[in-house]
Amino acid sequence: MTTTTAPPNASERVIRERITLRDVVIDTAVIARRNLVRVVRLPQLLLFATVQPVMFLVLFNFVFGGAISESLPTVDADHYIVFLLPGLMVQIATFGAGQTALGLIEDLNNGVVDRFRSLPMARSAVLAGRTLADLVRNAAVLSLMLGIAFLLGFRWQTSLWLFLAGFGLGLLFSYALSWIMASIGLSVRNPEAAQTAVMLPMFPFVFASAVFIPTHTMPGWLQAFANNQPITIVANAMRGLMVGEELLPAGQTVGGQVLAALAWILGIIIVFAPLAVRRYRRVVL
Amino acid sequence: MDANDVMVDVRDLVVHFGAITAVDHVDLAIEPATIYGLLGPNGAGKTTLIRVLATLLRPESGSVRVAGIDVLAEPTRARAHLGLAGQFAAVDAYQTGRENVRMVGRLYGLSAAEARRRTDTVLEQINLIEAADRRVGTYSGGMRRRLDLAASLVGRPDVMFLDEPSTGVDPRARQELWEIVQQLVDGGTTVLLTTQYLEEADRLASRIGVIDQGRIISEGTPDELKDRLGTAVLEIGVEPDDRERAIALLDAMSDGGAVWDAERARIRIPAHEGWRTTAIATRTLDDAGIEPTDVAVHRPTLDDVFLELTGQLTETAPAEPAAEQPRRRGIKARR
Predict the structure, then answer these.
(1) Residue A195 and residue A274: Cα distance in Å, rounded?
(2) What is the ipTM metric for this complex?
(3) Cβ–Cβ below 8 Å for A120 and B76
(4) Whole-number Å distance between alpha carbons of B86 and A116
(5) Phi and psi for A214 in degrees, rounded to 5?
(6) Which tens digits make up the pLDDT trace of A96-120?
(7) What is the four-CA torsion angle of A279, A225, A208, A213, rounded to 10 degrees?
(8) Secondary structure class of B123 (helix, strand, coil)
């Protein structure tokens, strides 16, 4: 039995009066694609995404590698890269997350978000597409770092699967950070102020951590902070997964660090994703 | 008014920003396939009103229907029927014109194929097809504005909201924009545009609302607004030596209506009887042996309406004396 034909101009007239789950997926993909095009086409973003991580990797490896491995019996000079890479991946993912805030602010200030909000599109797609695009960008950046690290002598010491799990953990962490940054960006709104608001808190977290060196040479009070903050925990979890337990501070297990890292990631998303969504609604409404 | 006959129906709309009342009990009704011009100075509430209509802002109270849909109750449904071109061209500089429009098409819910097809049609319509594959970063300001318009048109909105479409656009590009807007309306779209340019409202709009401090202080067709100012004005220039005498004669002739406009060096009297007033005035002067250097009947322009209603710029430009208006500006002739 045939159904009745649609009105002749049904395909002519757009009516998207309800948002279905399919619309949410399509809109998120459209927005994510747009944001990725931006990264690829704007030289300052492309350079930030590619040159900076490679520069950090090469500089830290060759400038600090010798000195650091001399003072650390567990790390030998040729293999500082093995210690460095997982930590540096976390650092770069953290810096990269700042782009989530800056991109959102740009869209808010030049009326793009207004345009999106006046369209019959999924409301959630603007933030979801933004964080998804940043996740994809981070995956590309971390892969690039990995490639360079391989040239510099990095090899995983565990198994391919554990190594990939470590890589995935780094990506998940970057995704969680994107939500923090989205919340900051939506609260600040002024591009110059946001630059500071985004970058400033990163430095103590990135440098007072086990990203570049183990924490045991730091003063006790600093160790207390460095050992228990998320960047150290994620860096150590990645080291454990990619290289092995011998790179972890005494008494830590790979499983324990991974669980702690996942707890942080989950905690951050649970707190900051709703916060960012609420901020977004307030800013645009 | 029957709600079915209007595309935009705003009733008793109020928007507060803290202690400031940005929109103050506004009523608005726009008939299908017409252009409504919202005319007002900066900060009058034009953009706020547009933001409410385009579902970007929730008002304190009042009702808003666009294309028969209650915007406050069903914003998503309403969005499928409206298009917004804001004060800034909200297009991505790093995407090509085509990519920008296609993206918005997708977000209106068009399939990929249909978005592509509509994009071509729209780019053709706004005469950007040749620049379609260039990045928007290379576009001129006017081209960006047109592209911004195209991006909204891709979804075939029933109602277009244009917030100061020609602010910061050069005269030629403005002309092009006007033609596009006119075409839209000819094609059945309803347009609400805000503007600070009286010429724009006069030229495009079939109805005009003058908005100041959040309130619509006058509304009507351009002609009605001009008529509301009262009569035309007769302006007469005379030699400086004849001035005092001419003012006295004309003041007597017009029952005390003569005004000396120092800035333009003209005597002005209300031309209640049009050209007959002119004939009488020139004859009066001629009988007294005064030869006018200049005689002109001045129809009130929208500028005059605007100035009269909002009271702006009174320092620099004395408005026409208007019989119905309580306020009168200009320097009364000395006897």
Answers:
(1) 23
(2) 0.84
(3) yes
(4) 12
(5) -65, 155
(6) 888 889 899 999 888 898 899 899 9
(7) -130
(8) helix
